[in-house]
Each structure stands twice: as structure tokens, then as C-alpha cells.
Design a protein that fits this description.
Elements: E1 5-7, E2 10-13, E3 18-23, E4 30-36, E5 43-49, E6 54-56, E7 64-68, E8 74-79, E9 88-95, H1 101-104, E10 113-114, E11 118-123
Parallel strand pairs: 2-11
Antiparallel strand pairs: 1-3, 3-8, 4-5, 4-9, 5-6, 7-8, 9-10, 9-11
Length: about 120
Amino acid sequence: QVPLVESGGGLVQAGGSLRLSCVASTATYAMAWFRQAPGKEREFVAAIRYVTSTYYADSVRGRFTISRDGTKKTIYLQMNNLKPEDTAVYYCASTGRAGSFYENYDSAHFYDTWGQGTQVTVSS
């Protein structure tokens, strides 16, 4: 299976903005963003279904926006008002699983295809 490809990471000052992109080879039922900071578990950030319903972690709601283009093969994560606590490697993920979505969309185990990750660093 061809992995997803993320891009757009970088170094920004606190309060700044960054937009991540993820390109898939085919449309899937749902795609998501996860992040992992050193020494921490990979955590859910945001997800979007094929119907474009969106879901956010409480820590980013109101600051981050996940979106999908018309082909549903590319997703974005617009990150505004970034905080140092947002520093992490951000991973794009996808899943073709439609069953039990609401019970599992925020779990990394629900996704079967992953990108290589892109580093986001937010300085104070």
C-alpha cells in the first residue's frame, strides 16, 4: 500500500500559522491528522469523513481546521494561533473502514495507511 505524503511542517513563532498538506493515491472513507511529541503517545488531532464531517481534539478545536479537496485525495490542516504545546511530528492517516467510525475515529489503530510525518515546531 502506498503511504500518504505530508508536507508543510516547519518552525513558527507562537501565535503563528501553518498549513499542512497530505496527498493520498486514492480517496478513502476517512482521513485524519495525528501528532506525536517526544516521549508521548500518538494523539488524535482531527479527522474528516468522505461526507466532509469534521472532528477535532479538544486541544485544537477553534484553532485548527481540517479540510478536504474535491477529489477527497488531499487533506489539509490549517493551524492557527499555534502554541509551543503543538510542537510534534504530525502524521496523516487514512482508513477505508466505515464501521464503528464514531467509536474509533480518534484511535490510531483505526487507520491503516500512514504518512511519514512532518515536523512542526512552535517557539515561545
